[in-house]
Amino acid sequence: MREFRKMAVILAALALLPGARLPRTGPVPQAKPEAATEAPAVPQPEKKPEEEQVPKPQPAPAQNPETPPAASEVPTPQPKPSEIPAAPAVEKFGPPSPAPEDLTPKPPAEQTLEEQHLTIEPESDADHAECTTELQSLGVVFRETPRIDDNNGCGIDKPIIVSQALPGIALKPEATLRCPTALALARWMKGSVIPAASVALPESGDITTINQASAYICRLRNGADTGKISEHARGNAIDIASFSFKKGEDVAVRSRRDDSTLTGAFQRTVSAAGCLYFTTVLDPESDAAHETHFHLDVIKRKGDFRYCH
């Protein structure tokens, strides 16, 4: 028995020696248990250096809604524009700059005479000569005077000073006008006023004087501070306050709408007839600004439009 064991040990040692061969009849090695078939490894794309260096974003840790945020996480409230204090004003020398609304042009009705930047209208030499020739033929007493320029558009290019509207009919005080205004006055007196007076007031005799309240004067309409320039400021207008007669009393221009006398009829007649000679006629029935006189002017309008009230 011991010999058999020795023999087995010798054979085992021989089997471990290099180049040793096992006997053909030796024990057959058993196969290992079948392992799961492994899929072939798929080659992975090589990562770029940039991608390897960029850290992936980490999900924010869940916060307890009841846990207040840290002081550094609380947003700082921003003030509203209206709550931002204005910068201290820098002291400047000289007049203050105008406010934006002051730079907006005013409408003509709100402009002063200086703001309108008007100019004097030139007159044709030929037209002026023709007009003065006709005045002379009617017997108007006048004299020429140098050009008037009172700035801001006030003035007359070729003014005349009228002392008698017609022969024997004085204009008091004498009036500085443009020739077309004096010519319209003479025609009105000759064609309408004198005939109406001879019919309505024959006992008063002839008209001796026209008492005027205003001729040339530099101002706006109705003497206002703002608005359109008056035709008086251009020599185009004259205001008649009353008529003096050789025998009777003066006939003052006043409201006579309900005056049923011949004097009332005379005033209403000459007021209506004025629109045949002047382009504007305003009488005491027009407004409060004309309750004591006739306003007569020769302003030119489109289509020869006339305003008579």
From TrEMBL:
List the coiled-coil residues: none
Q: In what ranges is there compositional bias, type Pro residues?
A: 56-68
Residue ranges of region Disordered?
A: 19-108
Which Pfam families does the entry link to?
Extensin-like_C
Signal peptide residue numbers: 1-23
In this protein, which residues make up the domain named Extensin-like C-terminal?
130-309
Spell out the Basic and acidic residues composition-biased ranges. 45-54
Alphabetically sorted, this entry's keywords are:
Signal
Q: What is this protein called?
A: Extensin-like C-terminal domain-containing protein
